């Protein structure tokens, strides 16, 4: 199986616990999260809409809500992706292990997670610095 994931979603998936914008989004996020845990899953990286965005009610003509919000989302993606080779396909399990080593403090995710509306519920964010 192959997944296309935006940079910041690599962190979101690590902290996902069943919350979402609506039922369709939550079901899709749960499915993607299950797939990313399987060792046969391959991940390609992007800073554009991905397999999670496809079910998001905020996706509007290829943008996350509007141009301004989309620009902020792309900056979050790029902050994650600058630590990875975007031309490479990754084994999903190995990629998420690598994410654990790169993003291991709240400081390391401050430009990505701090303004996220989910960060207070995010298990990944809550476990940092503990």
Tell me about this structure.
The chain has helices at 9-15, 23-36, 67-81, 92-102, 110-113, 123-127; strands at 2-6, 42-46, 59-60, 63-64, 90-91. The chain has 130 residues and is α+β, with helices and mostly antiparallel strands. Strands 1-2-5 form a three-stranded mixed beta sheet. Strands 3-4 form a two-stranded antiparallel ribbon. The chain starts with a strand and ends with a helix.
How would you describe this structure in keywords?
globular; three-stranded mixed β-sheet; 43% helix; 5 strands; alpha+beta
Strand content: 5-15%
Average pLDDT works out at: 93
Counting copies of identical and different chains, the oligomeric state is single chain
Distance N to C terminus: 34 Å
As laid out across the biggest beta sheet, the strand order is 1-2-5
Structural class: alpha+beta
Largest sheet: 3 strands, mixed
Which stretches are poorly predicted, pLDDT < 50 over at least 5 residues? Answer: none
Order of helices and strands: EHHEEEHEHHH
Shape assignment: globular
Specify the number of helices: 6
Find the count of extended strands (DSSP E, 2+ residues). Answer: 5
Binned, the helix content reads 40-55%
Global Rg: 14 Å
Overview in brief:
By secondary structure, this protein is an alpha+beta fold.
Topology of this protein?
Elements: E1 2-6, H1 9-15, H2 23-36, E2 42-46, E3 59-60, E4 63-64, H3 67-81, E5 90-91, H4 92-102, H5 110-113, H6 123-127
């Amino acid at each position: 199986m192959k997944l296309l994931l935006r940079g910041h979603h690599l962190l979101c998936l690590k902290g996902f616990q069943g919350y979402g914008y609506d039922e369709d989004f939550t079901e899709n996020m749960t499915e993607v999260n299950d797939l990313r845990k399987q060792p046969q899953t391959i991940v390609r990286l992007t800073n554009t809409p991905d397999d999670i965005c496809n079910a998001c009610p905020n996706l509007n003509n290829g943008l996350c809500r509007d141009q301004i919000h989309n620009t902020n989302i792309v900056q979050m993606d790029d902050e994650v992706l600058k630590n990875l080779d975007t031309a490479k396909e990754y084994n999903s399990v190995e990629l998420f292990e690598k994410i654990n080593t790169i993003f291991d403090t709240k400081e390391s995710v401050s430009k990505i997670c701090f303004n996220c509306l989910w960060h207070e519920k995010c298990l990944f964010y809550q476990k940092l610095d503990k």
